[in-house]
Amino acid sequence: MPLAMDNNTKAPVIQVKSSITIELIAAIQYLADRSHHKFPEKLGKTLLNNLSSDSQRMLKLLSGMRLQGLELFEFVIKERAFDDVALLVQRIKKYDDISFIYTLLGEVLDHNQVQEIMTDRDKLLQLAEEKPVLFNDNTKGFEQLFYNTRQFKNGIVNLVKEMNNSTLRNKMDSLREDYSKQEEKVKEKLAEKSPMEVTHEIAQRKFKRVLDFKEFFFIPSYFISPHKIRVFCNEAQMIVFELEQREDSVDQIGDGISQVFKIISDRTRLEILRSIIKEPTYGKLLAERMNLTTATISHHIDVLKSVNLVSEKRIKNIKYFEANDEEIRKLFEAGIEYLFGK
């Protein structure tokens, strides 16, 4: 929820809120390099399986860049597109090639320098030597950025669109209480301290570059963990920081286990699981084996996917379904722990 502090007409506007676009971009960075994060493996697999092969290739390009996707935060704060993915996509599309590169790189190069590199590949090698911090031991992403800019931009746009899916939104919905609690904690600090003081406290460091910001954004994020990122433009500053999550109560754990067992108590779903545990297969073959329509199979598969017991992968034009063995085992282990644990 936004927090406005209007002591006088010149007081900055302060907002403390969760953001779909921020979580989406942080999730992109998570998928670009999952070695720096400790999220459930099932979440990563599900998010990755939602992406086309083109978007997965885009992730690989981003993995070779310094922030591995978090560069896109620059567009969010410039366009104030915190709550509307479609708006963010629309605004990114409108950037000309030079402005797109200029913004994506956090304005560390001016427009003339960008144009020079676009027309002279030797300049890119020179940049790699002069500013190695921009590179992640890999120039491939930058080669695509400077010399296939429109293709790179279209790849970013499509990746953002595909990441705006039910898996991401459902995860955010499950964290609403956590977001709210974190927002209230930050608002309490802001009632006693200046926004820059709170920024320093959250970041656990003092920043030398401080402008006369007219707007401050404080964004708790599940996917940013374990990082803290500060982004700013001429008039606005944003800090994205790790979301503190509540520990699930016994009742919540029990509810979760009960929900999943209720889903697999359906005999058809149980048989689907049993079948694909033995061997991954596709919908038409499952339908023939079980004497059901493909539409019925598809419905049951979707329900099983919603609780991460089943995943899918596309081989050419065929979608294969496979059981998430580890998640199924964890379910039964959690049930035993819940029943027999103290």
Account of the 3D structure:
By secondary structure, the protein is α/β, with parallel strands linked by helices. The chain folds into 3 domains: 2-18 and 175-242, no CATH class; 20-168, no CATH class; 250-340, Winged helix-like DNA-binding domain superfamily/Winged helix DNA-binding domain (Arc Repressor Mutant, subunit A, Orthogonal Bundle), CATH 1.10.10. 58% of the residues lie in helices and 11% in strands. The chain is built from 18 helices and 8 strands. It has a 5-stranded mixed β-sheet, sandwiched between helices. The chain has a 3-stranded antiparallel β-sheet with strand order 6-8-7. The longest helix is centred in the C-terminal third of the chain and has 16 residues, at 325-340. The chain is globular and about 65 Å long.
Please give a handful of descriptors for the protein shown.
342 residues, alpha/beta, Arc Repressor Mutant, subunit A, 3 domains, five-stranded mixed beta sheet, three-stranded antiparallel beta sheet, 18 helices, 8 strands, globular, disordered N terminus
| Poorly predicted spans | 1-7
**Total of helices:** 18
Give the H and E element order: EEHHHHHHHHHHHHHEEEHHEHHEEH
Give the overall shape, derived from the CA principal axes.
Answer: globular
Distance between the termini: 39 Å
Q: What percentage of amino acids are in beta strands?
A: 5-15%
Helix content: 55-70%
Radius of gyration: 23 Å
Q: How would you sum up the major sheet?
A: 5 strands, mixed
- The neighbouring-strand order within the major sheet is 1-2-3-5-4
Global structural class:
alpha/beta
Tell me the domain tally: 3
What is the number of E strands? Answer: 8
Whole-number average pLDDT?
87
